[in-house]
Amino acid sequence: MSDADASGDSGDDGSGAFGAAIERGEDVPLLTGSGEYTDDISRRGTTHLAIRRSDHAHARIENVDTGDAEAMDGVLAVYTGEDVVESGVPNTIPTAWDLPGLVQPQYRMLATDKVRHEGTAVAAVVAETPHVAHDALERIDVEYEPLEHVTDPVEAVERDVSPVHDEAEDNVAFDFELGDADATDEAFADADRVASVDLRQPRIIPNAMEPRAALADWDETTEKLRLWMTSQNPHLHRMLLSAGTLGLPENKIQVIAPEVGGGFGSKIYHYPDEAVTAWCSMQLGRPVKWQATRSESYLTDCHGRDHVTTGEIALDEDGTIRGVRVETHAGLGAQLSQFGTATPSYLYATVLSGQYTIPAIHCRVVGAFTNTTPVDAYRGAGRAEGIYVIERLVDVGARELGMDSVELRRHNLVAPDEFPYESAAALVYDSGEYERAMDLALEHVDYDELRERQRELRDEDRYIGIGVGNFIESAGLSPSGLAGDLGAQAGGWESSIVRFDSTGSVTVLAGTADQGQGHRTTYAQIAAEELGLSVDDIDVVEGDTDRIPQGMGTYGSRSASVGGGSIARGAREVREKARRIAAHQLETSVDDIEFEDGEFHVAGAPDRSLHIQAIAHEAYLGHDLPEGMDPGLEETNFYDPENFTYPFGTHVAVVEVDPETGEIEIERYVAVDDCGEIINPMIVEGQVHGGIAQGIGAALYEGAAYDDDGHLQTRRMDEYAVPHATQLPDFETDNTVTPSPHNPIGVKGVGESATIAATPTIVSAVVDALEPFDVDHLDMPITPESVWRAAETGGDR
Amino acid sequence: MYMDDFEYYRADSVENALELLADHDGAELIAGAHGLLPRMKTGDESPSALVDIGQLSGLDAIEARDGERDGDPGGISIGALATHTEIAESETVREHATALADAAAELGDPQVRNGGTIGGNLAHGDARSDPPAPLLALDGSLEVRSPDGERTIAATDLFEGPFETAVADDEIVTAVRVPTDADAVSGYHKRRDPLSGYAMVGVGVWLRTDGETIEAARVAVTGATTNPARLPAAEDELEGSAVSEETITEASAQAGTTLSDEAFVSDVQASAEYREHLLSIDTERTLYEVLEVDR
Amino acid sequence: MWKPPTVIANTTRGRTTEETRRQYMSEHEISVTVNGERHELAVEPRTLLVTALRDELGYTGANVGCETGRCGTCTVAVNGETIKSCTRLAVQTDGAEIETVEGLADDGDLTPLQESFQEHHGLQCGYCTPGMLLSADALLATNDDPTREEIREAIEGNLCRCTGYQNIVDAIEATADRLGERR
Prior knowledge:
The complex is a heterotrimer of chains A (797), B (295) and C (183).
Chain A (H helix, E strand, L loop, with lengths): L26 H6 L14 E7 L5 E7 L1 H4 L4 E6 H7 L26 E2 L5 E7 L2 H8 L3 E6 L6 H6 L13 E8 L1 H10 L2 E12 L8 E7 L4 E6 L4 H13 L6 E4 L15 H13 L3 E4 L2 H7 L3 E12 L5 E13 L12 H4 L10 E10 L13 H19 L3 H8 L8 E2 L5 E2 L4 H12 L1 H13 L3 E10 L7 H7 L7 E7 L5 E5 L8 H13 L6 E4 L17 H27 L7 E4 L2 E4 L2 E7 H10 L12 E6 L8 E10 L6 E11 L6 H21 L30 E4 L17 H17 L14 H10 L4
Parallel strand pairs in A: 1-12, 10-11, 14-15, 20-21, 27-28
Antiparallel strand pairs in A: 1-5, 2-4, 2-6, 3-5, 7-15, 8-13, 9-10, 9-12, 13-14, 16-17, 18-26, 19-20, 19-25, 22-23, 23-24, 26-27
Helix pairs in contact in A: 11-12, 11-20, 13-14, 16-17, 17-18, 19-20
Chain B lengths: L6 E4 L3 H10 L3 E4 L5 H6 L7 E4 L9 E4 L9 E5 L4 H6 L1 H6 L1 H9 L3 H6 L2 H7 L7 H6 L3 E6 L2 E6 H4 E3 L2 E2 L6 E7 L5 E9 L6 E11 L4 E9 L6 E2 L1 H7 L6 H10 L17 H20 L4
Helix pairs in contact in B: 10-11, 11-12
Chain C lengths: L16 H8 L3 E7 L2 E7 L5 H8 L18 E4 L2 E4 L12 E3 L12 H8 L9 H14 L5 H7 L11 H17 L1
Parallel strand pairs in C: 1-5
Antiparallel strand pairs in C: 1-2, 3-4, 3-5
């Protein structure tokens, strides 16, 4: 830890940039069409890759005949899995999170022995045009011997089926436990009442609007690979390409993430396709481009969720929660994606205490291989699934006690003076004022009046429902040491460089990678604040491993807190070096130098001053620096937080359902979020809006399904409901601000919060509306038909 | 996304288009291409050649014709190349064939309405699309030309199955015809499938009334069934009945009774049973809207 | 030390994409006017308009987000009407006037609509934005005072996964208000 932190709240005045709703500088190229996404980039002589994928869910590859395809005009090469093996590259897509007893089967770039899910990459064609490459795909003759398949995570481990991997005969990849089983059993035995719920959290397809893409250019003379790709974490991709698939030294790989059209988790991972793109370029010595079609995205982008859960909650009559017990079967898909193991284990079970003081928690998760697309983190990853479970349990618990669900929530909230709060699910919450946020949300809808209206309307056979969702999120995915203890094969730090250029402008190089979050604006605000400058003085560079030395990337709501924290710390170090130069040139002691609006001046003598930009120039001139000081004015910072951050809040939805048709109308949606200090309220609100949209999507519209043949049924954009504008209401947003005490800028993060909150909130509202029909739970997506059936049958589905 | 290769011919007249179709085995017509291109991109269809009639002039006129003369049946004539936007915005269609205007306005989204044409839509025979129900309810027809001459295909003869219509491979739809009746009202109600935007259930209704009694009625469904269909039981219930809530209730209850269980579509979003249930409800809604009866 | 593996298949190194393509494809010469600029080009029949705009003419503003005409990221105006350029063959647009997102701003000056998108944070990743702008423009051309519901219907053919649409609706509504004040 540097001494810069100590001066973080030194009372120096910043520029006022932090906290302002500053318009995004990155918007202009995106608004005029000049922003460059991966597929917009071309190199001279670019060739095009198309990938032959299996149409079987599970089959042995008997033979791959590429002869006809190779003979086609314009086809440069056709490769099979054997070709990749023969090339001698490491050819391993690695997992990045180990768990005790984890079975880690082989995961190759192109399949050689078996295909294990529909969409498995089997062969690759490189041709002069995309059309020819795709034409050639059809000329590849693959002979399969079909094998029995399984797509459901419970069936996979409970039914006697042919295993997805021979290494895991029972299809169990891991059997994970968290919490104290004995204490939980005791709590349940001792409690007045027990309520339970069986629920499914269906597969979500992330649906970033830009499908994944890659453009690889291997330079034979320098033996260096340049790879433009749709990446949330270029450095992580560089590392995995080096250590996992290609075996090139890291310094011979440049990964560039240009404009990236959304990610939501799906662009974190190292998939076979981008590795194959790079490998083909190395084979051919020509640039190779691969652009996924949307149906390829649906078949290969890691899906999210896929949980089958039984949850139980033990309560006393007065509403005190005594314990929570959860058993989950989590579908992992056919292969372990990098964080496919962490997401349903540590990212899930650890949040089961939600906002509540729950003395005993036990969770068991069976991670199951299935013949489906790999599952990994999708916006809210693990935390969304966990909060969904605890919030559903609180609702069914309230129903069991005949208590208002808000009252039950209030009775169990962690109080402000209990922080740092150590939960029974192994987390230490940093700070929170849960009741304040909940009350604010309830105030927005006038909760008591709304309950009254609900009673009146029921007399007219109209059914409104009020859903309340309290959430916490464990954000940031660090510190590294803790992550390592839990099995992470990567660090949890973030890195940046804050650099004054010699004429006074500032360049911030950040190891995170934006996909729409507005880092170029918020990071400039952070640096501007620390350096007393305007955001216009600051340029932010992301997404290029040759320009930015190191980084972990953007996921887990970590960029503002960990990436932003690193920038703030780096900027403070730069400022303190500048202060020492100022003291030297103003011929006074460092302690006598005050800093205001970018100006260093001698205490009590405001006219004896030097601007930080002038000092930057001096630092690079190097003519007159303090004894022993090196020239230059830049700092490289690695920031490894001391804890996760814990955003929280309460969302409230008011819906009306029509039991006759099952139609659901969202009348109001109120979101109160506490993401700690707010760098840019406009951007925070945008993150909340988008998060709610995805949470509502999961609750009401989305959900991937497999048919009896193991084929993805929802394989096109007209078969999978990404919500469109008329399917979503206007949202009402508000904030409370409870700074994170350990973050250098008090930030907690906001990227995933609203997705975590919205799903249980909407389900709670619909189920609440159906209370007169004795419905206490409905699985997602809650379609009009499921509402109609529930109203008809009283929830006996 | 990537289609198989094909030959492309742009026709400069209907006659030329007919010749091109005749000369090229397996050739298909396109105009707006909104029916065919998506299915070619998914590999569901792979014609060897396309004959483009999208640029032909005079085939997009929307006009009300005077009564029968010179063999013309009168009523409304909508050129096959009229886009859904043009139909939705046409005063003539709105006034005389409201159900068709409703359907055009509800179809797809603005870009699809701008790009797609009515002739192509109906000839394509997508049972999830909106125009089939109003065409059936309005007792409309298609004018088609082939090398053998012209003929008229009644709406009731048009829909033969999923993506199968009575329009033959060598025929070109030139116009949609809808009879008009000053004493009739019509309308179309769509329940949108949240996934595809097509009709989960679409009901078209045409009624002739003297204000008190329903003299004649036609009710038709699209989206809910594997083939767009008239609903004769509902029609029978309506015809001769008073304009009343009771009539609407009874007719709606009859809506699906002439259809077999297998006639209803079942998919990820909605089962056949649910669609059958909705058919009655949506028939009721359409009737209330068209008859302007207060609930 | 890592060594690049040997080449497995023969390549046609040195031959340009253009040469290879001309050799085995039947192409049609077409001319289109894009944002006021006339272009002559040769296209395969199966070349989609969006592909021609992006790969042949370099107008990469319109994007490809799906293959079913659903997402609307490829929206452009052809002869004044917005369509999805993935649902039209390039060869069909011979002689057409096409407007893309690149044609909206005048010499780098954003239009009121573009400014409003920036002001209201109506974009995040920006991938849907070109199509969204074209659809919004088309709405405002025919309706100078749209309701929020009308705005939502006008952008129904344009999917956005980032914003939840609200700020897009705000941006379009504010543009209508601003243009209304000027009249």
